[in-house]
Amino acid sequence: MLDAAFALFIGTRAEDYTMRNLANALDMRVGNLTYHYKTKSELLDSLVRDQLANYADDILMCLQMNEAKPQTALERVVTLLVQDLRRPEIAFFPQLWARSLHDGAAAELMDKIHELERQVIAGLIGASRPDWPPEDCESLALHVTAAIEGLTLFIGRNKKSHGIYAAPEQEIARVLRVVLGTKSRPSQREI
What is the distance between the alpha carbons of residues 106 and 7, in angstroms, rounded to a whole number? Predict the structure, then answer.
């Protein structure tokens, strides 16, 4: 069911993503589908949880690799998130974002996704720079996640961005190395 719901979600317009269309795709009655998922919001929540579980596994692998340096783990996580934008399945998140503009349940899910992403990145920044106050780590994490989200418009849609298309994850990691390699707190100009 989740596979069919995922395919319908990324392959249709928002107004065509209905329980009835999903039931038709699964060759079942709507009542049978609503036995498992009472509402479209409940189904969407399951889809997001399924997608986040995949990310959690990948992020845990980045954190558990032999090199225990937090800065290396941060670079791996950022690289994973940016490189993942190249997968066709990533269309799920821009679709969810677009739907969140008009759907309260989708908006709540997007907020949770962004919060989790920022928490992971802020935690790795804090582990890299224990001398920084948490609010500076959270601020830098916000900037990093905003940069990654902005790349979705280009990489996630396979567009070129006037010559800046090549290896954006390396550029984000390079800037992080510069900022995190300093001995003092970052200035607004560095962020």
Answer: 17
* CB distance 86 to 155 below 8 Å: yes
Q: Dig out the tokens for 32 from the structure.
A: 């049978």
**Euclidean distance between the first and final Cα of the chain, in Å?**
43
* List of residues 6+ apart from 139 with CB closer than 8 A: 191
Contacts of 74 (CB under 8 A, 6+ apart): 121, 124, 125, 128, 176, 180
What Å distances lie between residue 168 and 2, 23, 125, CA to CA?
32, 40, 19
Residue 28 banded pLDDT, cuts 50, 70, 90: very high
Instruction: Give the tens place of pLDDT for each residue, 82-122.
Output: 877 777 776 777 778 888 888 888 888 888 888 888 999 99
